[in-house]
Amino acid sequence: MRTKVGIIGGGPSGLLLSQLLHLKGIDNIVLEKHSREYVLGRIRAGVLEHGFAELMREAQCGERMDREGEIHEGFFVSHDGIKDRMDLSKYSDGNSVIVYGQTEITKDLYDARDKMGGKVVHGALDVKPYDLTSDAPYITYRQGDDLYRVDCQYVIGADGFHGVSRKSIPKDVLKEYEKVYPFGWLGVLSKTKPVSPELIYAKHDRGFALCSMRSQILSRYYIQVPLTDTTDDWPDEEFWAELKRRLPEDVGANLETGPSIEKSIAPLRSFVAEPMRYGNMFLAGDAAHIVPPTGARGLNSAGSDIYYLYHALVDHYENGDDTGLETYSEKALARVWKAQRFSWWLTSLLHSFPEGIEYDRRLQDIDLEYLFTSDSAQASLAENYVGLPY
Ligand code: RFL
Ligand code: PHB
Predict the structure, then answer these.
(1) Which ranges of the chain would DSSP assign to H, the alpha helix?
(2) How far is the CA of 11 from the centre of ligand 1 (A)?
(3) Ligand 2 atom closest to Cα of residue 214
(4) Helix, strand or coil for residue 384?
(5) How far is the C-alpha of 6 from the C-alpha of 31, rounded, in Å?
(6) Phi and psi dihedrals of 2, rounded to 5?
(7) Which one of 189, 222, 347 would you pick to mutate in the ligand 2 pocket, going by the greatest count of ligand atoms within 8 A of its CB?
(8) Which of 100, 204, 230, 278 could form a disulfide with 246 if both were Cys (CB 3.0 to 4.6 A apart)?
(9) Is ligand 1 within 6 A of the CB of residue 13?
(10) Cα of 44 from ligand 2 centre, angstroms
(11) How far is 371 from 375, CA to CA, in rounded Å?
(12) Which ligand is nearest to the CA of 294?
C-alpha cells in the first residue's frame, strides 16, 4: 500500500500523531507489533502536563480525560517524618497537571482511530524501514505468513525504547547518551482509596516511595527496589508493609491495603539518542529518549515531540514549508534535554543510592531544605513539573 506517513509503533506517540494528521487530511498508517489488549495492559504514566492535555483536545480525544481526569494543583514531598507541599499552581501562574492514566489515553486514542476509520495494523511483525535517505522510503512487515510493503514519504519511529527504528540508523550517525540507575521501581495497582488526595513523593533512608492514583478508587504505588529483585520477592503483604515504613506515620496509618491487580518492576534509566532525524525518518517519544519516571516526564516529552512533528508535517503538506522538518531534531532535543536534567535532579534528590557516600546524603538534605525555603527553587520545580513551553 501507499501512504504519506508510515508510523512504526502504536503506543501513545504513534497513535496521537496518527490521529492529529488524519484530522488534517494527511493519510497515514500505524504498524504495531503487539495486540491492542497487550498495549492496553501496560500500566505506565499517570501525570499529564497541560500541553499534553491540550494536544489530546486538539486530537478530539480530550473529552473523557476532561471528565474523568483529576486536576492536581500540587503534590507532597515527605522526608524525615514530615510532609512539605509543593504548590504547583501558586508557583507556575495557576498551572496544574491532570492525573489520568496512560492506559486511558491510549484507549481514547484507539477509540478515536476506530471511529474515524484510521489504519492501525496490530501484530505487525518483523517491521523494517528501508531507503530512509531517499525520497521514497518504505516499510515492510509480516502478519502470519503474509508479507506487506508500505510505501510512504516519511517514516515515524514511535516504537519505544526497544523498537527497530532507532536501530536502523547507522552507528556512525547516531550518538547515544545513557545513564543507568542502580535500582528500579516496583509498582502496584490496587482497587483501594488513595492514601492522599495529592501525590506523595517520599524520600526515606530505606528507599524512595511514591503514592499516586488513577482515580478515587484506584491507587498506584511505587517503592524503590534493588535491580536484583523480582515481583516474586514482593508478595502483597510485604509490599504494603515496606511502603508504610517509608511514609510519615500519620500517612501510613491511613493506608488502605488490598490485593494488587498489577505488579511490575521497571529499571530506571536516562537515555537520549541524537539526532532524532535520519533522512526521512523521524524518531519520537521513547524511541529516542527515556527518563526515570520520578519527574513524570516520559509521556509528556513524547507529547512535545509529537507537537513539533505534527506542526512540521502540516507545514510541509499544507504550505510547502519544510522549516519545521529541518529543525525538528534540534528543537525536540532542546526540550528533551531539559526533561532529562529535571528527571535526573529529582531522581538524585529523592532516592537512596546504594553506593552513596555520606557527603552525597548531606547534599540531598540541604537541597530539600533549600527547595522548601526558597520561592525561586519551588518556582523552578513547578515550571518543570507542569511542563516547559513547547
Ligand atoms: P511506547 O509506549 O513504548 O510505545 C511504543 C509502541 O511501539 C511498539 N513497538 C513496535 N511496533 C512495531 N514494530 C516494532 N519493532 C516495535 N517495537 C515496539 C510497542 O509494542 C509499543 O506499543 O512509547 P511511546 O509511544 O513513545 O510512549 C512513551 C511512554 O510510554 C513513556 O514515556 C511513559 O510511559 C513514561 N512514564 C511516565 N511518563 C509520564 O509522562 N508521566 C508519568 O507519570 C510516567 N510514569 C512512565 C511512568 C513509565 C514507566 N515505566 C514502566 C517505564 C511510570 C512507569 C513505571
Ligand atoms: C504514576 O501515577 O504512575 C506516576 C505518577 C508520577 C510519577 C511517576 C508515575 O512521577
Answers:
(1) 12-23, 36-41, 50-58, 63-68, 88-91, 102-115, 236-245, 249-253, 298-319, 323-350, 358-371, 375-386
(2) 6
(3) 2
(4) helix
(5) 8
(6) -125, 135
(7) 222
(8) 204
(9) yes
(10) 8
(11) 8
(12) 2
- Between CA 173 and CA 215 the distance in angstroms is 44
- For the record, the C-alpha cell of 119 comes out as 489504519
Q: Are 149 and 29 in contact (CB under 8 A)?
A: no
Q: How far apart are the first and last CA of the chain?
A: 34
* Whether residue 10 has its Cβ less than 6 Å from ligand 1: yes
CA distances from 238 to 204, 241, 250, 354 (A): 17, 5, 19, 21
Which domains can be identified in the chain, with CATH numbers? 5-72+96-177+269-351 (3.50.50.60)
Q: What is the pTM of this model?
A: 0.97
Q: How many angstroms separate the CA atoms of 149 and 41, rounded?
A: 29
386 with 96: CB under 8 angstroms?
A: yes
pLDDT per residue, tens digit, the chain (390 aa), is 999 999 999 999 999 999 999 999 999 999 999 999 999 988 888 999 999 999 999 999 999 999 999 999 999 999 999 999 999 999 999 999 999 999 999 999 999 999 999 999 999 999 999 999 999 999 999 999 999 999 999 999 999 999 999 999 999 999 999 999 999 999 999 999 999 999 999 999 999 999 999 999 999 999 999 999 999 999 999 999 999 999 999 999 999 999 999 999 999 999 999 999 999 999 999 999 999 999 999 999 999 999 999 999 999 999 999 999 999 999 999 999 999 999 999 999 999 999 889 999 999 999 999 999 999 999 999 999 999 999
283 grid coordinates: 524518531
Question: Which region holds residue 320: left if phi is over 0, alpha if psi is between -120 and 50, else beta?
Answer: left
